[in-house]
Specification:
Layout (H helix, E strand, L loop, with lengths): L3 H11 L12 E3 L2 E4 L2 E9 L9 E2 H9 L4 H14 L4 H8 L4 H4 L3 E7 L4 H5 L3 E4 L2 E11 L4 E5 L2 H7 L3 H15 L3 E4 H9 L13 E4 L14 H9 L3 E7 L2 E6 L6 H14 L12 E4 L4 E4 L2
Length: 299
C-alpha cells in the first residue's frame, strides 16, 4: 500500500502514458493548491503554450486507491478528466491578458471567506478585512457549457500591474456589480420555487430575505455599496445577517424579536451538519445598526 506521497509521485511519473501523443512532452507538476476553504495537492499537466490548466485534486483519488481501486484504473480516470476539462482557447487568450491590468480590469470581482480558515491563501493575496471575514479579488475568465474559471489576484500580480490595493478594490467593487449584480429575494419566494408548494415557506410575519448573486462566492454581494441600506429599508431598521454559506446570506429583521444566541446556535449547527466544509463562511452572526450604519458581530 502506497503512502499519499508515494501515490502522488507515481501518478505524476506515469500519467503521460495514459494520455494521447500530444501530451508526450507535457510538463507535469504537483503544486499545493490554495483555494477558499480548501488546500490540496494538485496534479497539473501543462502542454506547450498552455498558460493555465485545471488542477486535479489528488486526495480524492488517493481515497479511491485506499478503497480498492487499482492505480491503473485511477490513472485512466485522471487521464479522461484531463482530456475532457482542457480549457478552451478563449480561456488561454484571457489568461494572456492577466499580464495587463487594463485588459483584465473589467473582469475583476470580489469573493468573501472566513479569515481564520484561509490564512495560507490570504498570505498570498491582498484582502480587505470585514470583522472576521476577508474580501479577496479574482479575475473572471469566463465559462462554457461544462466549465468556468477564475484566478485569485495575488501580491505578485498587483506588483506586475503597478497599481495599489485601494485601486484594485475600487475596480473590483465596480466590475463585480456589473458582472454579478446583487439579488435580494424574499425567503418565502425562494422556498416556494424550490419546494413547489407554499406550505414549506416561513410565515408571512417573518420577512426573511436572501442576499446572493450569480456565480462564485455569492455572499460577497452583501458588501456591495447600497446593499446594507436597502436591507435596512426592507427590515424597517436594524437586522441580523446569517452567513448561511459562501454562496448566500440571510437577513432577519431585528424587529421580529429573534434571539441572537438561538440564531448563532442555528448557524453553527447547520455548518456542522449540512453545509460542506468548503462552503462555510462563519459561525458568527452579524447585526447591522441603521443608525450607526455599521455591521457588527452580534453578541
Amino acid at each position: 500500500m502506497m503512502s499519499f506521497d508515494e501515490f502522488t509521485e507515481s501518478v505524476a511519473r506515469r500519467i503521460r502514458d495514459y494520455l494521447p501523443a500530444e501530451y508526450a512532452d507535457s510538463e507535469v507538476s504537483l503544486p499545493r493548491i490554495r483555494k477558499i476553504n480548501r488546500n490540496y495537492t494538485g496534479l497539473i499537466v501543462r502542454g506547450d503554450g498552455q498558460q493555465v490548466t485545471p488542477a486535479i485534486r489528488l486526495e480524492l483519488f488517493y481515497q479511491d486507491y485506499l478503497n480498492g481501486s487499482s492505480p491503473e484504473e485511477i490513472l485512466q480516470e485522471i487521464a479522461d478528466i484531463i482530456r475532457r476539462t482542457s480549457l478552451p482557447i478563449g480561456y488561454h487568450d484571457l489568461c494572456s491578458r492577466l499580464f495587463s491590468y487594463e485588459s483584465i480590469s473589467s473582469r475583476l470581482f470580489l469573493r468573501v471567506c472566513g479569515k481564520q480558515n484561509n490564512r495560507e491563501l490570504l498570505e498570498r493575496a491582498p484582502y480587505h478585512t470585514v470583522l472576521d471575514l476577508a474580501l479577496t479579488c479574482h479575475a473572471y475568465l469566463g465559462e462554457t457549457e461544462d466549465s468556468r474559471a477564475c484566478v485569485l489576484v495575488t501580491h505578485d500580480m498587483l506588483q506586475q500591474w503597478h497599481i495599489s490595493k485601494a485601486q484594485l478594490f475600487r475596480q473590483a467593487f465596480r466590475s463585480s456589480m456589473e458582472l454579478m449584480p446583487a439579488e435580494i429575494r424574499p425567503m418565502r419566494e425562494i422556498l416556494r420555487e424550490n419546494c413547489g408548494f407554499p406550505d414549506c415557506a416561513p410565515p408571512e410575519e417573518i420577512p426573511m430575505f436572501v442576499i446572493t448573486r450569480r456565480l462564485w462566492g455569492s455572499a460577497a454581494a452583501l458588501f456591495y455599496p447600497g446593499v446594507f441600506e436597502e436591507l435596512s429599508s426592507l427590515a424597517d431598521g436594524d437586522y441580523y445577517i446569517l452567513p448561511s454559506s459562501v454562496n448566500e446570506c440571510i437577513m432577519v429583521p431585528k424587529s421580529v424579536g429573534s434571539d441572537p444566541f438561538c440564531l448563532r446556535q442555528m448557524v453553527r449547527e447547520i455548518n456542522r451538519s449540512i453545509v460542506q466544509d468548503c462552503e462555510i463562511l462563519s459561525d458568527n452572526i452579524y447585526c447591522y445598526s441603521s443608525k450607526k450604519k455599521r455591521l457588527m458581530i452580534a453578541d
